[in-house]
């Protein structure tokens, strides 16, 4: 009977098991797997007969034909570890992610846009010049605006009269705890800070912030320059419903929309139509002041009318559209009466004004109204992905930005990218074997069905060819918005959940199905750029083949944790949480990033089959 003797993490390679099964009786050989086949130098095969053990053979791991005998003897197979060529890919993945985040730190983003000349006291912003004379006001809302305000203060501090920013609750304390340099704003700052809840719904604190912002901007004169800072989270952090809608009614309607499946675009469309400062409202309230709005995009495609619900962005009123959304979702009868009546009244007013609004003269007036308002996207996911690609190159990888528009449920994204890793590994192997491979074809069809377009697959294959020729490993980079519809009661986040789903499929694809490609190393990192994934204080998680071993060692059932949206609990139990990625609050917010490293095979792999 063959058995495997475990030496550390090393047990019998599936290829060896296959070979043994081929030469002896299938039932005699139990299959188990080797995690790092590069570690195997020799296979020690001993024969047991009548209790007498004798070494039957010492077989190099790369030997193709193993056995030519069949026997009634009992054999024991063990592996002798050789020198490991396996590298840990995790530090590189972390390095690439952290570099990407640094590229969208407020300092570099805003420093590139606000060009201040202290000698002439002028500020140049993308072709426009503003004369500064202690006439600068600053307002902001969102998860990243504390850092952004800090940079604006550094550049224009002498001219700032006053300001108000609305940031997430606990942020000041958290930054002070975790950043030795302290909070980004000076102790003597003229910018008032409000902290409100950003994760769920608008609260009294953010309502007060919105009122303070409204109060500030509505007093501005034509000599003033208003700098507006916007980033993701700004919608919840700056709520000011049109009268007579109350804060509570605003909360009710957004809750209803979210609970009934409205997407963020639909929720923000409603916000723009029932709130004073959204949908361009802030810029209009600030008239006649000039406005420069610096926007950090946390939306795919940078739609500036949606980020923080577009406080400085021209937006066509669309109350009828809101009614259509509510009707489609079947929630109209639950929507607070004040909101319903407001939207109905606005729809009537709009239809009465429509002819005038459509006239050429009205359009010219509208253009003139917005001429003094500059909206500038200072940072986004693409910038971070580009920086990730540059760093990956520096580290010796061949980078491939697969997409900056990744959208979907965490578990689908994790599963799809694990399949993609397997596809890449199998393609690498095709470089040494040109036999038709049905499994590869099926996998390609699955990838296309999962949303990886055929052109991308071709692009991946081309990159793979290049990686193969250049003797490099591949780094796949994706940016976008990962989502989770939480149904369980666990603790986790969208990125951790994607990493967990990837791990589950890595196990399925590379182990349970006994893929010889287990020889190829990979690692998968998925993190939220703001440093706080879901309800946790971690940015996300990273998984690789070693993670699977450690989960197995602890007897954890990954599927159960996924079902209960309990990814954080699982990751914190494995290797003391070493597979969680901690960045602390990053001070930026450009959605989610995935870095997947796939190492080329160290040796020819199908030697045993
Ligand atoms: N236990 C959980 N597991 C996975 N995701 C969760 C869990 N709890 C909350 N979430 C997700 O986290 C999201 C909010 O997280 P957050 O990282 O702040 O998002 P964003 O940065 O995109 O605003 C919620 O919309 C929800 O989908
Ligand atoms: O980043 C976020 O918190 C979400 O994308 C919501 O962003 P918003 O405040 O721009 O609507």
UniProtKB/TrEMBL annotation:
Q: Give the protein name, as stated in the record.
A: Glycerate kinase
Q: Where is the MOFRL-associated domain?
A: 93-344
Signal peptide feature range:
none
Q: Broadest EC class?
A: transferase
Start and end residues of each MOFRL domain: 474-592
One Pfam match: MOFRL
* GO cellular component annotations of the record: cytoplasm
- List its EC numbers: 2.7.1.31
Q: Give this protein's Gene Ontology molecular function annotations.
A: ATP binding; glycerate kinase activity
Catalytic activity of the protein: (R)-glycerate + ATP = (2R)-3-phosphoglycerate + ADP + H(+)
Keywords, alphabetical: ATP-binding, Kinase, Nucleotide-binding, Transferase
Domain of life, per the record?
Answer: Eukaryota
Q: Identify its protein family.
A: Belongs to the glycerate kinase type-2 family.
